[in-house]
Design a protein that fits this description.
The chain is of the alpha+beta class. It has two domains: about 180 residues, Ribosomal Protein S5, domain 2 (2-Layer Sandwich), CATH 3.30.230; about 130 residues, GHMP kinase, C-terminal domain (Alpha-Beta Plaits), CATH 3.30.70. Helix content is about 35%, strand content about 25%. The chain has ten helices and eleven strands. The strands form two sheets. Strands 1, 2, 3, 4, 5, 6 and 11 form a seven-stranded mixed beta sheet that branches. A four-stranded antiparallel beta sheet has the order 8-9-7-10, with helices on both faces. The longest helix has 20 residues. The chain is globular.
Length: about 325
């Protein structure tokens, strides 16, 4: 094949209870990368486009400075059979949104490049290459956005186990709601600002919530999910830079969400609730955000949202 296009979805990182260890794919938002083979060696980036179809004004056109280019180049160096690639990136995930924007580009770049190999690798084998791109953008080796964007659904991906990750079952009849306020938070800067020490009580509480959340997913226990979808360590440090957070969280809980927290480092905010309650939760979150004078977008997704895929190849 000489040309391939791939799509990779946005994602919710951390899921409140699992900092750097849990991620969930989001349906409806994502990035696309088109790759074509060239006789010349190396991976090059032709252009990065925004949602309006015009060149993106904030992202580098250098492949070595773009997560899609870095991931595709890492894969091609390891498994390419001569020649090179030229890429075009189509951004569908807002930048610095807490929705895995850099991860979606890295995954789409790896998947598009993989489709052009003489013997494409299994999807899961692309994780290390996508992580190279994500590490460039976020400043850390963590897969809580890359893994769900690649594989879909809910993924357990502790850094200590990488590159091994595990897809987890999800409770039936539960959807995610993601609200993206018209704000930006730099992930790398947000990570650097986190405190380095926590009390034993905080650590034990958060570990209990993580264990309870995973058990709730395994056992389809909605009430346990409601009790455990909390973050007592990271959210209190990051939420003050998102001025609409408290109002949006309170509105989601009042609309019967199981829980509500930051998506990744923010500013996006996610909630989980029943499929039936999700539209009302989304409406309440939107009204609360706009009531704070901040415009926003929302997405409602099943917890089984699909991962990356090749859309076209020729």
């Amino acid at each position: 094949m000489d040309k391939a296009s791939a799509f990779a979805p946005a994602s919710i990182g951390n899921l409140a209870v699992g900092f750097d260890m849990l991620g969930l794919a989001i349906a409806g938002a994502g990035d696309r990368v088109t790759a074509r083979r060239t006789p010349a060696d190396g991976v090059h980036l032709d252009e990065v486009y925004g949602l309006d179809g015009r060149p993106h004004g904030q992202l580098s056109g250098e492949a070595t400075q773009n997560t899609a280019g870095i991931a595709a180049a890492a894969l091609w160096r390891a498994h390419g059979t001569g020649g090179g690639l030229r890429l075009a990136v189509y951004k569908g995930v807002p930048l610095q949104s807490g929705m895995g924007s850099s991860a979606a580009s890295a995954v789409a770049g790896a998947v598009a490049a993989n489709a052009l190999l003489d013997e494409p690798l299994p999807l899961g084998a692309l994780l290390p290459f996508a992580l190279e791109g994500e590490q460039f953008a976020s400043g850390g080796l963590h897969a809580d956005n890359v893994a769900p964007s690649l594989l879909g659904g809910l993924v357990l991906c502790p850094p200590i186990l990488l590159p091994e990750v595990r897809s987890l079952p999800v409770p039936r009849g539960v959807s995610s709601v993601v609200l993206h306020p018209d704000l930006e938070v730099n992930t790398a800067e947000s990570r650097r600002s986190l405190a380095r020490g926590y009390s034993m009580d905080q650590w034990l509480t958060q570990q209990g919530y993580l264990a309870g959340f995973i058990a709730a997913c395994m056992d389809n226990d909605h009430e346990l999910l409601r009790r455990c979808l909390r973050d007592v360590i990271i959210e209190p440090q990051r939420s003050p830079v998102v001025p609409c957070f408290a109002a949006v969280r309170d509105a989601a809980l009042a609309a019967d969400a199981f829980g509500c927290s930051l998506s990744g480092s923010g500013p996006s905010i996610f909630a989980l609730g029943t499929d039936a309650a999700a539209p009302g939760i989304a409406a309440a979150m939107t009204a609360a955000c706009r009531g704070q004078g901040v415009d926003c977008q929302t997405w409602i997704s099943p917890m089984t949202a699909a991962g990356a895929r090749v859309e076209a190849a020729a």
